[in-house]
Specification:
heterodimer, A: alpha+beta, PH-domain like, 2 domains, 3-stranded antiparallel sheet, B: 4 domains, 6-stranded antiparallel sheet, 44% helix
């Protein structure tokens, strides 16, 4: 077999995405803290145990909030060529996806409330396979729109893409 | 030739076809069956006001009228480009699908249908109908109309004039040998059927207050069990359980696969017909069939059996013995399965070639997983024995799992394999159900490389070929990173090279 090695895709996502990921994770952790506090108030007997659990959660949350966004930002990358889309995402589990442009079915952007706050957008490229959508998270809105335009113009699907 | 321009809709209307009028006998009965809970509700509500039966009759009449309406409002037509289906009175729905998107035609007939010479036609048009409902379903054509429709939809080859219906050549690939029923007990379907029956019995016991302990034979069994030792009881119950499961599986096999025949028709389309009480015929268009899967559940593998499934676009991925419409061969001797797969794929190599084994690191991952998993489980059970004082036999049983963990890990590792043969991407995975899938390289839409932190440390990755057919994704699990790239590059030439380092 050949000695082919893949490089990472060329483009990084917007640096603002780090803040977005951090805020989203922070909300998740706040939920955990709320639940723990409610449990504490409901069962006030074992104070030491509750303090221990809260401290452990705090440590985990801090570590997660510091490490995850940076790690993710280093991993998340994307690239398009004349014939294919190539994405890389994840942090603990990382994934690279490659799909030929000829097999692309739809290209769409999607913005959640927090993403709008940060001026970010996601681009999803779907193929005829239910298992194969390519997601590019955390692009600036302008980049996302340009990317969608570019992909739609380049996609000349012959047949039905299956 | 010029003709006066008439209203195009009126012209089109002439070609609209209806379901078989005999459906008027079935639709009301089916609707009545569906409405039973509502009707019971009406009866109960009515009985408190004193004229329950009258309300019940009115309810039943409305339901029957709805059934009749369904026949009057359902129509379909085939234009040169499309198949269109219209239905509904209040909420009119027109479903249209381009003819070249029709991938499969599934003709089923349950008991009621068969008594009246009718059949239900389900037309598969792609991934959107994987969720099942709301597709192109024609419930109730006469059997001849159903098979003619199938011919119209699948054999419209413009290159040569269509042969007269019924005159098409067919070549038989496989036919059920009744002795294959011996493989039925080694599949999981018997266990599933038994659990369903037990569950039904349990609910009957709880909700309808049918007390099984008062039924004669069961009481005798219970009294018998009380007088013997616990170990004997467990043995007796297990033997009885195995017997029940085996019988259920055998009956299930006969019901689903009686009269099974796999044939190839003129245009290359495959045709599967089967079923004892509910007969079912599935046609798969040749260009939609992109591969085949040989699956071997552990027990079936132990007795030298296997089954063969089609990988095709537009076929629902089913569960259990029936596997939707994708069965190419029910549990049968391995040799027969191999020859069917070879015939379907056009080459014996994809399913018979020795596969490339995966790195030893993949074995380590399997060992770590199954050993830690089973040890954790036995620790939990040990704690339960100490804390709650349940029988220590439970803990001994969990120790048995630990002993099984190592052989299981080895078997899971031995199952892993991959190869590219004759343009087919072949991958094998699984121990409890070992599946070897051969997927045409042309059917692959994209490649995913996924690796967890631990996989990266071991230099492994999970390569996934995505496709519009079958399970949509076929995994090559824990392959060496460099091999994964070379493998994908060989299967889809030119796609990866542009991203080379």
């Amino acid at each position: 077999m050949s000695d082919l090695r893949l490089r990472a895709p060329a483009n990084r996502v917007s640096p603002t995405a780090r803040w977005y990921w951090a805020i989203r994770a922070l909300l998740g952790w706040l939920l955990v803290f709320t639940v723990e506090t409610v449990v504490w108030l409901a069962t006030p007997e074992s104070t030491v145990g509750h303090i221990f659990v809260l401290a452990a959660t705090l440590a985990l949350a801090t570590l997660h909030l510091i490490v995850m966004p940076q790690w993710r930002y280093r991993v998340h990358r994307w690239e398009t060529t004349d014939t294919a889309v190539y994405t890389q995402s994840g942090w603990f589990t990382q994934e690279r996806r490659i799909a030929p442009l000829a097999r692309i079915q739809t290209v769409d952007t999607h913005r959640g409330p927090f993403e709008q706050l940060f001026g970010l957008a996601n681009v999803t490229v779907t193929t005829a396979s239910a298992a194969g959508p390519l997601h590019i998270h955390g692009l600036t809105l302008a980049t996302a729109e340009a990317l969608v335009d570019e992909l739609i113009h380049r996609t000349h699907a012959g047949g039905d893409g299956t | 030739m010029t003709t006066a321009v008439t209203d195009p809709l009126a012209v089109a209307d002439a070609h609209w076809r209806r379901l078989s009028p005999r459906m008027l006998l079935i639709h009301p009965i089916i609707e009545l069956g569906r409405a039973v809970p509502a009707l019971i509700g009406l009866l109960v509500a009515g009985s408190s006001s004193g004229n329950g039966s009258a309300w019940g009759v009115i309810g039943a009449l409305i339901v029957i009228a709805l059934g009749v309406l369904r026949w009057f409002t359902t129509r379909f037509q085939i234009t040169p480009e499309q198949i269109q289906l219209r239905r509904g009175l209040v909420r009119r729905v027109t479903i249209a699908a381009p003819l070249d998107r029709v991938r499969t035609v599934d003709v089923t007939a349950h008991l009621l249908h068969r008594a009246l010479g009718l059949a239900k036609v389900v037309i598969g048009t792609g991934t959107s109908d994987r969720k099942g409902r709301g597709g192109l379903v024609l419930d109730g054509l006469s059997s001849t109309a159903a098979s003619r429709l199938r011919g119209e939809l699948l054999h419209r080859d413009e290159s040569h004039p269509s042969p007269a219906p019924g005159a098409s050549e067919e070549q038989e690939i496989a036919r059920l040998d009744p002795s294959w029923v011996r493989y039925a007990p080694f599949t999981l379907s018997g266990a599933i059927t038994s659990v369903a029956v037990l569950g039904f019995g349990w609910r009957l016991n709880n909700e309808a207050h049918v007390n099984f302990s008062r039924l004669g034979p069961l009481r005798t069994i219970r009294d018998q069990l009380r007088h013997t030792s616990a170990l004997l009881d467990v043995g007796a119950i297990m033997v009885a359980g195995i017997a029940i499961v085996s019988i259920a599986a055998t009956i299930g096999y006969a019901l689903a696969f009686w009269g099974f025949r796999l044939t190839r028709h003129d245009g290359g389309s495959l045709h599967v017909s089967r079923g004892l009480i509910t007969s079912r015929a599935t046609s798969i268009e040749a260009r939609r069939l992109v591969g085949a899967e040989i699956s071997e559940p552990l027990l079936l593998r132990a007795v030298g059996g296997a089954r063969c499934l089609a990988i095709a676009t537009g076929l629902r991925v089913g569960r259990g013995a029936e596997r939707g419409g994708q069965v190419l061969l029910p549990p049968a001797p391995r040799g027969v399965v191999m020859s069917v797969a070879a015939s379907v794929l056009g080459s014996a190599a994809p399913e018979s070639t020795e596969l490339v084994a995966h790195p030893r690191a993949a074995l380590r991952r399997r060992l770590v997983r199954s050993v830690t998993g089973s040890v954790a489980l036995s620790v939990v059970f040990g704690a339960l024995v100490v804390l709650t004082g349940i029988s220590p036999y439970v803990w001994f049983a969990s120790l048995g799992l630990v002993a099984l963990a190592v052989p299981l890990a080895y078997d899971r590792y031995r199952s892993l394999g991959h190869a590219i043969v004759d343009g087919y991407v072949v991958t094998r995975i699984g121990s409890l159900v070992r599946r070897r899938s051969a997927l045409s390289g042309e059917a692959i839409i994209g490649w995913n490389f996924s690796s967890s932190f631990f996989q990266r440390r071991a230099g492994l990755t999970t390569l996934t070929a995505t496709t519009a057919a079958g399970k949509q994704a076929y995994d090559v699990c824990d392959i060496a990173e460099d091999d994964a790239i070379a493998f994908a590059d060989a299967a889809s030439p030119g796609l990866l090279a542009q991203f080379a380092a």
